[in-house]
């Protein structure tokens, strides 16, 4: 590679890294506890029951939740993927922001209310909001997406620069006899190459996750409307089929899948005349891919079932991969270890830049073939 091209890549790597590193460090620090969100978040205690397959009336659970919140309504049901519980949020309107929901949690086998903290408060919730949108809503999410793209640029440019650097040293060699800056440079580059594949995956899936809101809007304005058109829902005033009937009809229409979310008529993920159920499969991969079903609100009949479009599927697959949710606790521990190593890489990258800046930009002898450091 020519010296001119090397300088060009060095400039790209330097500025893309400097602009995004602080935010990348924030994402790594907040992402570390989020890897274990299931273990650290609200975790209700479940009692032993004689028949684990028993199902209590969901309508009765909804009535109990509403009795405690007079004047509010239920926009959704959220079923846990791993435990026999259902979260029933209440809100002042169907379009209320999720962070204003009040959740009541029930054991679906017995119908008993469970004592647990609210999922929209506490340490894990604060970490999630900082990681997802910096408490700035969609603007914060898209901003972090832009930082993620810069991070990808930093990774690519760092790999390009590592080639000339690696030709002068053996793989994994750390020049301990030289200055501390050179030792940190070698360690920084080594850790960067070791975590390259992992960090590339996490960065790309993170960028995809920031597009969740636009993807949801696309789905609502396209496929949801197309599915609803398949049914000429008859006017029945305020008549609504019971939720127990709706769930039974959905499970019969889509056997072998599990309902994870039920959106009530009038919510952003349904229509005024339909319930919308979202189901998943039973394998590690299909458990993360949603299949929507539209149900006539008055009769409870399932009127349309479709696979999600490719762009929504890409989002659903990327979300658990981003946090290492595919392989249980062992994979989470691996993800956490890589995250900690990446934090070291980011901090060392800042140290190397500050050390060079304090030295007036001078390059120590023996490093002129490596004009920039590999960051993450």
TrEMBL record:
Taxonomic classification: Bacteria, Pseudomonadati, Pseudomonadota, Alphaproteobacteria, Hyphomicrobiales
Flavoprotein keyword on record: no
PANTHER family: BLL7967 PROTEIN, IRON-REGULATED INNER MEMBRANE PROTEIN-RELATED
Keywords: Membrane, Transmembrane, Transmembrane helix
UniProt xrefs under Pfam families: PepSY_TM
Native species: Bradyrhizobium daqingense
TM stretches of this protein: 142-166, 187-208, 333-354
The keyword Transmembrane helix is annotated on this UniProt entry: yes
Protein name, per record: Putative iron-regulated membrane protein
